[in-house]
Design a protein that fits this description.
Keywords: Endonuclease, Hydrolase, Metal-binding, Nuclease, tRNA processing, Zinc
Protein name: Ribonuclease Z
Pfam families: Anti-Pycsar_Apyc1 (PF23023)
Subunit structure: Homodimer.
Cofactor: Zn(2+)
Shape: globular
Number of helices: 11
Bound molecules: zinc ion
Number of domains: 2
Length: about 300
């Protein structure tokens, strides 16, 4: 799986950074792409990638500030206009109000979609597990911003061990129903009396990945809980070292606070986004350098950058 950043700027677009959106590409896992936030111009950014809008099956919104949702009406409308592709339904998860925003925008602009949108709204009282499929579970918790805002923890279920068919053949197991039994963990005895222990022919299950994607937030314990043992933590870094006070008053974090969260949570990797246009490229290198003094495996992402998880 990969994360592709579509917009990594804070508040307003700049020439190099668009407003917030990222795509979690789960093509090998479930042949779907999940979008997190959809700032204005997200559809234009998608045109510069290989992402097919029809593959986007779910959109998760962190909060209702404009730089995170104003791209929705445009994206949803364009998604309807791709010829020669089947219309597929879409799920939108987000704070209460997202349904009214989307439906109002579509209604007043006379937009009619040839596919269905299923809304899943939540508020302070309905957080926790919001989605479970056979491959993934998604949890939300409330963060600490100037309006209700959440972070998402996407947990892939453990991947089953695979059967070593070559080794079984070499052991003289005839191809057929016995393979199925062994795959299900059952020990078997062959006609010649040979005992086959299933565990010797199945690789150990691989732990699923954990991806934590946070909305705008002050430093808070909720972020740490969401990021426990995460393979990747995507955390905002609207401000830099020394600006902790102003960050707090505006409902945001500094790079140092993001690094503290990653360290406390035992995350493996920290990706900083929501970068202010005030920062020039040398400031961005400094953001990384300073954060690395607390959490070493840190990187400041750019628009269109793709990161393998
Ligand atoms: Zn915000």
């Amino acid at each position: 799986m990969d994360i592709q950043f579509l917009g990594t700027g804070a508040g307003q677009p700049s020439k190099t950074r668009n407003v917030s959106s990222l795509a979690l590409k789960l093509l090998d896992e479930i042949n779907e792409v999940w979008l997190f936030d959809c700032g204005e111009g997200t559809q234009n950014r998608i045109l510069e990638t290989t992402i097919r809008p029809r593959k986007i099956s779910k959109i998760f919104i962190t909060h209702l500030h404009g730089d995170h949702i104003f791209g929705l009406p445009g994206f949803l409308s364009s998604r309807a206009f791709q010829a020669n592709e089947e219309q597929t339904d879409l799920e939108i998860y987000g704070p209460q109000g997202i349904k009214s925003f989307v439906l109002t925008s579509l209604r007043v602009s006379g937009s009619r979609l040839p596919y269905r949108i299923h809304f899943h709204e939540f508020d302070q009282n309905s957080l926790g597990k919001i989605l479970e499929t056979d491959k993934f579970t998604v949890y939300v918790e409330e963060l600490d911003h100037t309006i209700f805002c959440v972070g998402y923890r996407v947990m892939q279920k453990d991947l089953e061990g695979t059967l070593d068919a070559e080794k079984l053949k070499a052991a003289g197991v005839p191809f057929g129903p016995l393979f199925g039994k062994i795959k299900n963990g059952q020990d078997v005895v062959l006609e010649d009396g040979t005992e086959i222990k299933a565990a010797d022919y199945i690789s150990a299950p691989r732990p699923g990945k954990i991806i934590t994607i946070l909305g705008d937030t002050r430093q808070t314990n909720a972020s740490v809980r969401l990021a426990v043992n995460a393979d990747v933590l995507v955390h905002e870094s609207t401000y830099g070292k020394g600006d902790e006070k102003i960050a707090r008053s505006h409902g945001h974090s500094t790079n140092m606070q993001a690094a503290q969260v990653a360290a406390e949570a035992g995350a493996k990797r920290l990706l900083l986004n929501h970068i202010s246009a005030r920062f020039l490229s040398k400031d961005v290198s400094q953001l990384k350098k300073d954060a690395a003094s607390i959490f070493e495996n840190v990187h400041v992402v750019k628009d269109l950058e793709e990161v393998e998880v």
